[in-house]
Design goal:
There is one protein chain. The protein is α/β, with parallel strands linked by helices. It has a single domain, classed as NAD(P)-binding Rossmann-like Domain (Rossmann fold, 3-Layer(aba) Sandwich), CATH 3.40.50.720. It contains nine helices and ten strands. Strand 2, helix 2 and strand 3 form a beta-alpha-beta unit. It is 38% helix and 20% strand. The termini are far apart. The strands form two sheets. It has an eight-stranded mixed beta sheet, sandwiched between helices.
């Protein structure tokens, strides 16, 4: 089977592609600019590159993209500049999540397809977690109103919880929540928690992108890891930062 990675040329996405290829997996990667992937990845025999803007694909092309995939990993995010934050598409993560999962349903896979979404520790799991403090609620309210990417991340998770849910079906999901992403060259020990153990607003932790990629690869390929977190929103921190 094949694992689909969208947002594959981004800082986390290309690390995830490398992690999956190193495990011997076949990877289908959607990229707008293939040149943003390292030469060694582009030349890998188990990598299939699809050059496209994901949301520009029509429904038939989207179904073809997901057909035959055992897992889909979304590393999509908004560029942190004025155009990326305030320009179109404002619902990049939500619309991609909805369209990919809808396409999977249309292909009627024999086994459930795993959907792994990279999200943010600032997005709360209101069904399981204590509410924010008043000060945090004020800050999050401002973020929601002033920064479209935050609202987009919230809406993507809300769609998964509402439209995919917890019941058995053609799609299962996990939303991975890193905190304060930074670059590191190799995988290091990291911690997983059902909920944030520190305030993402006033006391943020740290998570290396390569550790996020490693955990997402574990979810996509390892049954025990998937069963432990299916339908949940684990928070990931580098060891010692929780």
């Amino acid at each position: 089977m094949t694992i689909l990675v969208v947002g594959a040329s981004g800082a986390t996405g290309r690390r995830l592609v490398a992690q999956l290829l190193d495990r011997g997996e076949r990877v289908r990667a959607v990229v707008q600019s293939p040149g943003k992937l390292p030469d060694a990845l582009r030349a890998h025999a188990s990598l299939e590159l699809v050059q496209a803007t994901l949301l520009d694909l029509d429904d038939a092309a989207m179904r073809k993209l997901v057909d035959g995939c055992s897992a889909i990993a979304s590393c999509l995010g908004h560029r942190m500049n004025l155009k990326g934050i305030y320009g179109a598409p404002r619902r990049l993560v939500t619309d991609a999540t909805r369209r990919l999962c809808t396409a999977v349903r249309a292909t009627a896979p024999e086994a459930p397809v795993r959907f792994v979404l990279m999200n943010s520790s600032g997005v709360r799991d209101f069904a399981r977690e204590q509410p924010f403090s008043l000060a945090e609620r004020c800050v999050v309210g401002l973020l929601r109103a002033l920064l479209p990417p935050h609202a987009d991340n919230e809406q993507a998770v809300a769609w998964l919880k509402r439209d995919i849910g917890q019941a058995a079906g053609p799609v299962e999901w996990v939303a991975v929540r890193p905190d304060s992403l930074f670059e590191e060259d190799s995988v290091t020990p990291y911690e997983l928690h059902p909920s944030p153990t520190r305030s993402p607003i006033f006391d943020a932790g740290r998570t290396s992108r390569i550790n996020v990629a490693h955990f997402m690869a574990e979810l996509a390929t390892q049954d025990d890891t998937w069963q432990a977190w299916r339908g949940r929103m684990p928070t990931i921190y580098n060891a010692g930062c929780a």
